[in-house]
Every structure is written in structure tokens, then in C-alpha cells.
Amino acid sequence: MIKQDFVALAPYLAVAGGIVLLMLLVSFWRSVRVMLTMTVVVLLVSLGLVGVGIGNPPHLISGFLLIDGYAALFNALFIIAAIVTALLAYGYMRGRGGEQEEFYLLLVLATLGAMTMAAAHHFAAVLLGLEILSISLYVLIGYSEEGHPPLEAALKYLVLSGVASTTMLFGMALIYNATGTLVFSELGSTDFAVPRDELYYLAGQGLLFAGIAFKLSLVPFHMWTPDVYQGAPAPVTGFLATVSKGAVFAFVLRYALITDVLAIPVMSTVLLVFAVLSMLGGNLLALLQNNVKRLLAYSSIAHIGYLLIALLAVGVLADSLIAVEASIVYLVGYFLMTLAAFGVVTVLSSSSMEVDAESIDAYTGLFWRRPLCAVIMTTALLSLTGIPLTVGFVAKFYLIATGAEGGMWLLLWALVVGSAIAVYYYMRVIFVMVQKGGGDSYTHPSVKVEGMAVLVVIGLSLILFGVYPSPLIDFVRSSIGIAGG
Amino acid sequence: MNLLALILLMLAGGGIAWVSERFNPKAPQWVALFVLLLAGFWVYGLWVSGDGPIYAETKFAWIPRFGISVYLSLDGLSLMLVALTLFLGVVAIASSWTEIRERTGFFQFNLIWTLAGLVGVFAALDLFLFFLFWEVMLIPMYFLIAIWGHENRGYAAMKFFLFTQASGLLMLLAIVALVYQNYATSGVLTFDYQALLGAEIDPDIAFWIMLGFFIAFVVKLPGVPFHTWLPDAHTQAPTAGSVILAGVMLKTGAYGLIRFVVPLFPEAALDFRWPAMVLGAVSVIYGGYMAFSQSDFKRLVAYSSVSHMGFVLLGVFAWNQLALQGSIVQMLAHGFSSAALFMLAGALQERLHTREMSDMGGLWVRAPRMGVITLFFVVASLGMPGLGTFVGEFLVLLGAFQVDVTVTVAAAIGIVFAAVYSLSLMQRSFQGPPNTNVETMADFGLREMSVMLVMALALVWLGIFPQAVLEMAAPSLASMGVGAP
């Protein structure tokens, strides 16, 4: 390790050091408030270091991690999402029993895992990041002491996610068997090229992508998603829907970019089928839901399906960086609107309730009872629908433009049909919120100041990036190395 | 003058109207009225001071990454439609002066934002911006129906939103496809209308892109078979919503056909001329037939809109000067007459709490002023010479006759239906033996009479002096290659 390695790794070292610090802190001074403060401080320091390093040339650390603008953008997203989750979780857990301090420790640990995946350039790094992330998530999902749903969700996720990780690991082993390397750049280089139809190689890629499809909850590997989303505490669900998905996508996009795996016809065809099935299946199944968390779970399946358009564009476009640009802009939008939607569920959930504010009836008349929450929820839902002047539209527009540039009409049709179906269930929630009544049968949770403040900021950025996306676009383009504005 | 400022003025005015409810529940309608009058004077100033063919223009870069600019421009056609929008906006506020008693602030906010979106639609010459306004005006209209609508508002609002949103997505796909087709041949990525006018597109692709635009606009127009949202939405909307829907929002479909479909795809539109004209004629006859079979006052007027807008579709695809001028006169005339009839329906519902004509009858005795007004607009609707509708329909038929005799004859038969349903409306509600259920009914007061008289005068003016409108529209049509410059 040389000095430049440490400079490049600074954000990671800050988070890792922070984790040790938090671990020591929690054993000497048990205070939720102090833990929250320190967590936010650690994450902010790391975010600052990410920001400082964003202009530096790409730096490869012994073939293991590639620290570049790409990793930096994803890291920034993960860290911001973690800060939001921490602040939301604080208000959510207040009034609930149990030891709450370790929650923040696990949250930062999960973030470190996600950050590792964003920079992974080697299968070992992928696995390392994935396991840090997943194992932290198992505990986070089942963190609540009360009630069965979290435990059931955690167990489901543990078993199924464990199987998926194993599948991926076996896939990596088969690829190693065929090529003799685990480094992405070597997998992509012609020196190591194996026949693309070699059986072990293809089987390895197939298993790898099956595991990825599970982690991204693509149809037909989506069965776990609604149950886990519903059972997990609302702030953790938001984290799961954004950071966990984003980390896996960051890895698979980088993997596709460097190794050109999507040039194998069967791989891109399979992925295309997954994408179309996710867009249509996710949206169709969401129509049947009366539970907001499950509804958002299915909607996130569809949204990751849309995102696959950008991934598939890697294999189609002459300039694959445009696909990266589209993916990141899309993920910025997806992160913001998903965090906003689950954030509203979080602040409306009360510790006195058996379950979170997840039944659609709990939202009846919300517009007149809690106008600010309702406005933010409406903005988030309109953004998820893809209505102009919200970031969700910019994100969707990016995918449509990318797809049109690549001539991927089948996927675009699926996107249009899926989005049209989606209008119904998003608008149904909005309709319920503006109706009269419903205020009597539901407890009014106390206003959570930190949570509301975070939500207001996210709500404003949903609009801001929707109205004036140019700075965001320029920033993403310059960070990933596309010249010009 | 800056057109963006005009739209921002309206958006800001809407916000102020919402907030002003805190001080007095009556305040929002005064604020809204003031804002609309201010905007009206602004547009009047443009009209008087401008010397055509472009009365005002604003253009600056917005999202340079995709060649998107804020490009707003008012030529004669756009200016007339913007003026109609603002005028009917004032009418809508006047018509709901006493009807809306709950959440007045949010009501006026939605009303003004719908109008601002409509102004944007008529002024935008950047396809991205056009789509943005096209979508943005739907949300407040959705709220108007969903919150203040009648008994079946949930269903109607959802149907309205689904139809328009799904067709809007189709248009977005068509817009992006057009832009990227142009990018492939010219190497310039731009959403500028003027630049895309000269785009060279493969005829086969052009047809499909044209169809995407066509369906989006015909859903809004609405033409058979995409009209089914209209009777529900119009019937369930509050009076102000119906006035704006019928008076202005339907015109955005016609405007889109004139401004975008034919000029952007002249050959494809020519190939599609016959089916489109047949659809127009079918709408005329089917709308008239369905109107006659209604027992609900508002539903009858709604179906009559389908019939009247069928003439516009017929005229646009005949695409000669006579027919197009007829279409434009018809758009304005229908704006006034349908708005007035919906106001009457609203006034009757406010007084009688029913829209069923079987519960009416003999109302002339109770409210002679309302009777006279109804008679006037009913006669206008059936196409009495000397009133605007006659000029519009006559010119359309004259122009269409030169293109296709059979279709024109069929459409002309539709006018007979108009006479039947119009007179039956009058007969069933105001004539005949007085309904014993109705003991007393307040007649129109000064506010309602003055609004109605202004609209009646406008129809007379259109009927006996259509030349002013024709001259105003001529340069716009000339710029699209129709008629002498």
C-alpha cells in the first residue's frame, strides 16, 4: 500500500474508523442521541472525503477496488441515504423498547458494505461488500423487539438472500474455473478470453446473474420482496429499497462495463426478459395491494425493471458512458423518491401501533390532517408516476432517451405500458389522501422533528431536480468523465 | 414581454390564493379573480401592441444536455386560445362563486394552476416543454374532480387521469423517437419545434410516430373511440372544472393536431387523412346520437361536446384553408357555448340538487331569465346561422367537401342530431308542465346574467363577424403552409 492508496481510500477508512469508534462508544456510554450524532458526523466526514476526491483520476488498488468518479457518485448516494435513514429511524424508534444504540452501528456497517460494492473491481471485493451489507441488513430488518413481522421478514431474507449469495459465489467459482481470474479488467481483456459459449463460463455467468436478479428483486426472483418490505421497520425498508439495490446495481453495471458480458447474446436476452417481466409484473401486482409498503415494494420491482434499460444500453450504445450517466441520474431520482415515500410511512408510524402506518386506510384524509406529510407523499408518488417537474420524470425521461438512442423499442413499450398501469395505484393513494374523514380511527403519532426536516429537504429536492436538472446532469457527467456540459 | 413571467405570475397567484384562505374563506376567489384579470390584461396588451405574426416570444436554454429550451411563443392562433383560456377562467371562477364552500383556497389554487398549464400548452414551441405543460395541467384538474366532484368522483377522476396519462406517455415516446430520428440524420439533438419541422424521417417510422401524437390528441379532443372518459369526467366535475374541461382542455387536443401532427408529419398525415376524417364524422354522429339518449343534463352536454369536436377533427384533416379556419372558429364557439351550458347545468344542480331532466320540466315559469339564456345557447349549439357554431361547422363542411364528399355528407347529417338533442334538452328541462317537486327556484342574479351575456355576445360576434378571427389565424396557418401568407 502506498500513500495514494490511502488518499483514495480515505472515505472508506473514515467509515471503517467510525465503526470502531461507534463500537467503543456504545460499550462505554449508552445514549441513543449520542450514537445518532456520532453516526451522522462519521457519515458526513466520509461524504466530505468523497466530495474532495471526486475530481481525482481513477485509482486502482491492487486490482481489488477501483476508486473513481463512478464509485464516488454511488458512495455519495449511499452515504446520503444512510444519513436520511438514521435520522428517520431515530424518531421511529423513540418510544419503542429495547437497546437501540446498535442500530446505528449496523447501519454504518451496511453502508460500508455498499460502498465496497460500488468500487469493486474483483469478485472477492464484491463478495466482501455483499456480505457486510447483507449480514447487517439481516439484523436491521429484525431489529425491533416487538411483534412477529420483523422477525419473520428477517428470517425470510436471511434464508433467501443467503441462497442467492451462495448462487453468486458458485457462479464466480465457475467463471474462475473457465478463465482463471477474478479481476474484472482481466475478465474483459482479450488475453484471457475464453470462448463466450464455453459451458462453465456461461453457467457461471448465469448463476451470477440469477443471484443478482434475486438481490435486485427482478421478476421472477421477486417473491421475497413484498413480505420483507412489509415486515421490516419502515426506515429499514427505505434503506433496503435504495442502498441495497443501488449497491448491487453499482456492481453489476461496472461488471457489464468492464467485462462486456452483455455482448453475449443469451445474457442480454435473459436480462431483457427479466426487465420486461419486472416492469409489467411489478406494476400489475401492485394494483392488487391495499398495503402501502407492499405497494411500494412492487413499485420498486418495476422501477428496477426500468433501470435495466440503462444496463442493457451498455451492450447497445457506442458510447457506454451515456448508459452510466442515465443509470446514475435515474438512481438519484429513485433514491430520493423512494426515501421520501418510506420516510412518510416512517413518520406516520407510531410506536403504539402493532404495525407501521401501512394500511391504505391509514392515509384517508391525510391531506387535511397532516398536510405537510401528505404533500410530501403526493410529491413522491407523482415523482414515482413520472409526472414532469419532479425528479422522477427526469429519471424516466433519461431512460426513454437512452432507449431511443439505442433503438430498444420493446423495452420502451414495456416501460410505457408499465407506467400507464402504475398511474392507477399511485393515484389511488393520492385520491385516498384527499378524501374527507378517516381521522378518528387512527392514532396521531407525535411529530418527529428530525424526520420531518429530512423529509422536507428530500421533498424540495424532488421538485428542484425536476425543475432544474442541469446542474445535477453536469455534475454526473463531469464526475464519470464525459467531457462538456 | 416575457411569457414565462406570465405563467409564473399565474403559478404564484395560485399559491397566494391558497394561503389567503387562512384570512378569509372568501379571499381565495378574489385573489384568483384578480390574478386572472391581471393575466388577461397582460395578454390584451400583447394583442393590442403586437403586430403579428408573432405577438410575443421567449426563448432560452434549459437543459442543454438534451437540447431542451424554454421556448414560448404566441402567434395569432395561440394568442386567441390563450385569451379564451383566461376568459373562461374568469367565467369558471364566477360560476363557482357560491358553489364551493369547502377548502376554497386549494380549489382556486388548482383552478389557476390548470389554467397556467393550459396557457403553457398553447404557448410552448419546445416539444419537451409542451409535454411538460400537457402533463402538469392534469394534476390540478384531477384534484378538482377528485375533491370537489359529485357522487361518483373517484371513478371519474381516475378514468380521466388514466386515459390522458396513458396517451401522454405514448406522446412522450413519440416525441423522443422523433427527436432521436432527427438526431440520427442531422446530428443535432434538439426539441425545438422549428428545427424539427424540417426533420427527415423514414416514412414508415414517421407514420408510427405520427400515430403516437394523433392518439394522444384524439383522446383529449375527444374522438370516438377514445371518448369514454369524457362523459364521466364532465358529469362528475364541479362546475368550474366542467367549464375548463369542455371550454379549454378539449381544445388542447385540437390545437395539438393543428400545430404538431400535420406540420411535423405532412406525408404521414396525408396517408392517414381518410381514417381520421371518418373518425371525425363518426364522432359527430355518435356524439349526437348518444347525447339524445341521455337523461342527465350534464351528460347530454358532454356528449354534445364529442359531436362538436368531431367537426374539428374533420376540418383539421381536410387540411385546407376553409376547413382549418372553420375548425378554429368551431373551437372558439364551442368553448363559449359548452362553457355556458355547463354553467347552466351547474346552476340547476346548485338549485335543484339534481341533474336528471326527469326531475325538471317547466322551469321557464320559475326562472324565466335562465330559460331565455338556455334557449339562446341551445340554439347556438344546434348551429343557428348568425352564431359562431354555424360559421365553424359550415366552413368545416365546405372545406371537407372538397376532399371527401361521402364523409362530409355523413357529418352534415350529424347537424340534424344536434337539432334533435338540443331542442329535447330545452323541452325536457324548461318547457312542458311544471314539475311539482320544484316549488320555487332562484333565477339568475346579476353576476350570472352578466357572465352569460358576455358569452352570448361573443357567440354573436363570432357568428356575424368571424373575419376578425380568420384574419388573426391566417398568418399562423400560412406558416404551416396553408393559404396565402
Q: What does this protein structure show overall?
A:
The complex is a heterodimer of chains A (about 475) and B (about 475). Chain A has about 475 residues and is mainly alpha-helical. Chain A contains 20 helices and two strands. Chain A folds into two domains: about 1-155 and about 225-245, no CATH class; about 265-485, no CATH class. In chain A, a hairpin with a 3-residue loop joins strand 1 (about 60) and strand 2 (about 65). A two-stranded antiparallel sheet of chain B has the order 1-2. Chain B has 21 helices and two strands. By secondary structure, chain B is mainly alpha-helical. Chain B has helices at about 5-20, 25-50, 75-95, 105-125, 125-135, 140-150, 155-185, 195, 205-220, 230-235, 240-265, 265-270, 275-290, 295-320, 320-350, 365, 370-380, 390-400, 405-430, 445-465, 465-480; strands at about 55-65, 70-75. The model of chain B has no long low-confidence stretch (mean pLDDT about 90). Classes of the chains: A mainly alpha (about 475), B mainly alpha (about 475). The interface of A and B includes residues 431 and 485 of A.
Could you state the oligomeric state of the chains shown?
heterodimer
Number of strands of chain A: 2
Within the largest sheet of chain A, what's the order of strands?
1-2
User: Which stretches of chain B are low in confidence, meaning pLDDT under 50 for 5 or more residues running?
Assistant: none
Helicity range of chain A: over 70%
Order of helices and strands of chain A: HHHEEHHHHHHHHHHHHHHHHH
**What form of chain B results from the Cα inertia axes?**
globular
Q: State the separation between the terminal residues of chain A, measured CA to CA.
A: 36 Å
